[in-house]
Design goal:
By secondary structure, the protein is α/β, with parallel strands linked by helices. It has helices spanning 3-10, 12-17, 24-76, 87-104, 121-135, 139-142, 161-164, 169-185, 189-206; strands spanning 78-80, 107-113, 143-149, 154-159. It has a four-stranded mixed sheet with strand order 1-2-3-4, with helices on both faces.
Length: 207
Amino acid sequence: MSFLAFYLYLNPTCRLFLSPITPCSEIMFQKKAQNQESVLLSKKMKIKYSILLILFFSLSVAPLLYAGIQKSVQEECFRDETGTLSAKTKSEINRLCHNLLLRTGLRMIVTVVAHLGDLSEKERANQLFEEYAQKDPSFFTNGIVVLVSFGDRKMRIELGKAPAEKMSNSEAKNIIDQDFIPHFRQGKTDLGLTTGVASIAEWFQTH
């Protein structure tokens, strides 16, 4: 048996399609090229499906996460136990806290009370901090409590671990002295509160 006859015997595909125009080696090359093209096309389709799946997941879940954060902030961000602050002030404080959370991951809660009772401003702020942290354990790390007592004319900024690593006690005191107290002394409680909270939010967004 010649080499050609032996080769054709082992390669029936070549034997069937062999013609004077198309050599056997060319047929095999074309078949291999088609297989490679099929594999490449399959990989491309898998990549496209993966991208579409990721986009679908992002578009489906992102609005839910955003809505959850927004709901959490609006429900928990501001507590006015005096009932003296305007709806506009409450809305503005919610907006400031919301933006701070989205941009930095820090959660600020503002609480206004008429009196501290038998507690100091530090004790009351710590009490509130513990209360909020029980609902959300991440508050220990990312939380900020702003406590204002109009009747006692006292206030405090209590910081969790992450914000305390950035803002010192002296810097917190400067914000209280410069942005809250001057307006409070003039009887402009709404303006003092929104100005002070805005200063805290801006400080953490720029440091």
